[in-house]
Amino acid sequence: MWNSLSVMTVKQLFSSYPYATDFFSSLPNLQQSEDSSVAQYFAAIEDDTLLDLGIDRQEFLDQFLSFMLQMEKLKEDKVKIESITIIGGKDKQGKAEDIELTIHAGEIVCIVGPTGSGKSRLLADIEWVAQQDTPTNRKILINEQLPDMRCRFSVEHKLVAQLSQNMNFIMDLSVGEFVSMHAESRMLENIEEITSHIIAKANELAGEEFSSDVPVTSLSGGQSRALMIADTAYLSSSPIVLIDEIENAGIDRQNALRLLIDKQKIVLMATHDPILALMGDKRIVIKNGGISSVIQTSEEERRNLVLLTTIDRKMLAIREMLRNGGRIDEIPV
Amino acid sequence: MQLITVAGPPSAGKTSVMLKIIETLQEETLKVGVVKFDCLSTQDQILYQKKGIEAKIGLSGNLCPDHFFVSNIQDCLLWSQKNNLDMLITESAGLCNRCSPHIRDVMAVCVIDNLSGVNTPRKVGPMLKLADIVIITKGDIVSQAEREVFAFRVKQANPSAIIVHVNGITGQGAREVGQLFKRAQSVDSLTDCHLRFSMPAATCSYCLGQTRIGQNFQMGNVRKMDLS
């Protein structure tokens, strides 16, 4: 790789590999002409500058090459994940979990069980692609095959994206800047288009509208959650989305979940909210560190979901009345 | 005996994460000890000792903490050999972003947290750039997007490192890092070993206790800002 890069001018380097600027932006301004070759550029860096950076010349070159190599790798297409399979291990008492469960892209599976029952361990097993090398002795298959174990430690092959109630935005950026920064890190090309698309989607999901100029930190809870879900649906590289409850305020939860499954995500949701739980195709029941059963959502439950949704809409309508300064003297039946 | 050097900015979550990782190693009956390097004071040895982990404290006081580290690391190794430890973990705070206690052929770990902001990976020097493993903490309170951008920036700063997320409160990810720690090289002695990179030099009049400000009192290794 060095052979081809070293003879380019710095200017050519930046135009052929725009992300290369990221490598140089963390360095002090070396005041070198962009017409010098990459080789000349590195040769002309003074020893004192390297000392300041805390790196020697060869290591610095190696780091540059490894940077370019890794960034190029990010652009490669990844194997599409169609399904994950959980092959049972054992619970805390050593009792075997008699289970083999395959979850397909576009499916929602809920996980229920009391605190401390082992929900997190199950999710950790999936994230780690356990191969009978965790305390539960479970085995995870991807696309019904043994996975490439490199995904355990690779940033770009991370299997699980997480979304929980106590997550917040901390960056000092506007919504637009924020989303496009995420898109840049995915090495996408049509950044503007995708950014405005995501913000429009998030607005569809959020109860109250927001523009791309507002700082992410000043979004309401519902708006934040809507933006996080839209952003995860479009920009997260992870095929599995793990959700830890979604609060029932300021966000259209059913459409939010639909967006994720439309994007062919595998959605795992730890929830005890009846509406969310019944939206799932299946529920995994966890007891005592093991999967005690898998419940298929029944026809009756689907019918009850309609009923629950009606009740939920009523609650939301009452909430809206309160928000607008109304009185709750009568509840419409 | 295996040795691992862990470094990271103050409050990144080094101690919490190490406690969780060591717990998983103890389950495999490994005897792990910790030497914590700090500047002024620390109570962290109590946290370690509560978990039955042998722990020693090194306070650098008015010396540069990383220079203090290098001057003591061989003695720490002897201490852990005397105590028949299987693994010694040293923990130190990289206070100036330029320091790095990492030693050649010794597993080097950097702990850095999501809350420090997405530009931080670009600002931290050899401590991050020359580490073998980078542990990112506090992922449970920021958004997925921020986690991904942060990890991406860490990867840009250190493309060859293994990057892992560990939650210091729940321990999520700790067991997996424990498995990595078990691959650390064995070290019998550090005499004649080299640091991965030189530490920042100072040796100016202020190193020697000068407190007055002004041109007349600046001697030795002095560098001036370009304010033009």
TrEMBL record, chain A:
MF terms (GO), sorted A to Z: ATP binding; ATP hydrolysis activity
Highest taxon listed in the record's lineage: Bacteria
UniProt keyword terms in alphabetical order: ATP-binding, Lipoprotein, Nucleotide-binding, Transport
Segments passing through the bilayer: none
Entry-linked InterPro entries: AAA+_ATPase (IPR003593), ABC_transporter-like_ATP-bd (IPR003439), ABC_transporter-like_CS (IPR017871), P-loop_NTPase (IPR027417)
Every ABC transporter domain range: 79-314
Keyword Lipoprotein in annotation: yes
Keyword presence, Zinc: no
Annotated coiled-coil segments of the chain: none
Membership in a protein family: Belongs to the ABC transporter superfamily.
Protein name: ABC-type lipoprotein export system, ATPase component
Organism: Pelosinus propionicus DSM 13327
Lineage start: Bacteria, Bacillati, Bacillota, Negativicutes, Selenomonadales
UniProtKB/TrEMBL annotation, chain B:
Domain CobW/HypB/UreG nucleotide-binding: 4-164
Organism of this sequence: Pelosinus propionicus DSM 13327
Pfam families cross-referenced by the UniProt entry: cobW
Name of protein: Ni2+-binding GTPase involved in regulation of expression and maturation of urease and hydrogenase
Record-level GO BP terms: protein maturation
Single GO molecular function: zinc ion binding
Gene3D superfamilies: P-loop containing nucleotide triphosphate hydrolases (3.40.50.300)
Highest taxon of the lineage: Bacteria
